[in-house]
TrEMBL record:
It holds the Pfam family GST_N. It comes from Rhizopus microsporus. It comes from the Eukaryota. PANTHER family: GLUTATHIONE S-TRANSFERASE OMEGA, PTHR43968. PROSITE patterns: GST_CTER (PS50405), GST_NTER (PS50404). Residues 1-59 form the GST N-terminal domain. This is Glutathione S-transferase. The lineage of its organism: Eukaryota, Fungi, Fungi incertae sedis, Mucoromycota, Mucoromycotina.
């Protein structure tokens, strides 16, 4: 999404975590990796730093307060949302479904993790501007918006998504506004959220 926004042409190659292609550019088999000229950069933070330094730094605020807010939001995403919401709920649900557990069993197993996840999303919601500002850090579009959006798209799409929607009115409003952007629309096909939405429509 960031490259689309910055007007940078690129070739996207799909790779699953821990696939041979993922290991080709990252010794830990993680995604994404970013290939530019003779460099292969992995880890999202390093990719962001590289794009800022070599391509364009327009997504990193010059204003200190806004830059700190952006860094805080990205840190919260990495330290709390990924661990307790994405992995704590979405990945566990996937595992339980593959194990053949019933929906009632899954709900019971996710009961306590969901409480933790909801508390975290409520905390994020308190940090989202609720006074008509368009982006997570205020009036400026930043890396925080592009990094948060795909995660929240997936979280709102799972069965527990209704719990997250109910507890995050500010975050949800930001999400719906951002969802209409060109960058979000062009990168939505093939995502977890896209797959889940298609499953729901076939039920």
């Amino acid at each position: 999404m960031a490259l689309i926004h910055l007007g940078v042409s690129f070739q996207f190659e799909q790779a699953d975590p821990h696939s041979p292609l993922a290991y080709k550019h990252n010794p830990f088999g993680r995604i994404p990796s970013f290939l530019h000229k003779d460099k292969a950069i992995f880890e999202t933070l390093a990719i962001r730093e590289y794009i800022d330094a070599v391509i364009s730094d327009k997504l990193t605020p010059k204003d200190l307060d806004t830059r700190i807010k952006m860094t805080q939001m990205i840190s919260i995403l990495n330290d709390y949302v990924f661990h307790h919401v994405l992995f704590g709920i979405s990945k566990r649900r996937d595992m339980y479904e593959l194990q053949g557990k019933t929906e009632e069993e899954i709900k019971q197993l996710l009961k306590e993790p969901l409480k933790k996840a909801v508390t975290i999303i409520q905390g994020v919601d308190k940090l989202v501007p609720c006074d008509g500002q368009k982006f997570l850090c205020g009036e400026q579009l930043t890396w925080a918006d592009f990094l948060f959006f795909p995660v929240m798209a997936d979280m709102y799409a799972i069965r527990e998504g209704s719990d997250f929607i109910a507890c995050s009115p500010n975050l949800r409003q930001w999400f719906l506004t951002f969802q209409a952007r060109k960058e979000a629309k062009e990168t939505f096909p093939g995502t977890i959220a896209d797959t889940l939405s298609k499953k729901k429509s076939n039920i």
